[in-house]
């Protein structure tokens, strides 16, 4: 674009590549994304992929981790905006209803989890993101007096992941169907919270 500095053009190309990677991972699968396909989708020359990123895998990792971080930050904001962890967890679960299990974001996450089984660096980075989020959730439960905050946070996180996976198989699955059970697990009064 006219009037842009080289640094601005470089940032724009990086963002185009990252956006294209997020789309393609879900559409084609992690291992089917090639430098050529990625560059075509981003509308740039294929040499720019390796100019801006050390490798195609590094680009795919960054695109995925940025999207995961964005989603987890938004989900954490839902937790922080509610009066109790139980209400926050229900809000997070309801927010997951926007995903079908076959939408681009769901497919990106599913592909990333699978790729993390073969990519130790992606595994470690995803593990850190999930662990940080689970820690924040456990902290919120602990502050409300939940007797087993770490275990409850682990189950909630597994339920969220499973919910997304199952929605791809059962589009009728909804947050409303499982929220009552989740409420029993996270409600501090029914779980013997300290007075």
From TrEMBL:
It comes from the Bacteria. Residues 34-53 bind DNA. Signal peptide: none annotated. This is TetR/AcrR family transcriptional regulator. Pfam families: TetR_C_31 (PF17940), TetR_N (PF00440). The keyword DNA-binding applies. Coiled coil: none annotated. Residues 11-71 form the HTH tetR-type domain. InterPro entries: Homeodomain-like_sf, HTH-type_TetR-like_transc_reg, HTH_TetR, Tet_transcr_reg_TetR-rel_C_sf, TetR_C_31. Keywords: DNA-binding, Transcription, Transcription regulation. The lineage of its organism: Bacteria, Bacillati, Actinomycetota, Actinomycetes, Kitasatosporales. PROSITE patterns: HTH_TETR_2. Gene3D superfamilies: Tetracycline Repressor, domain 2.
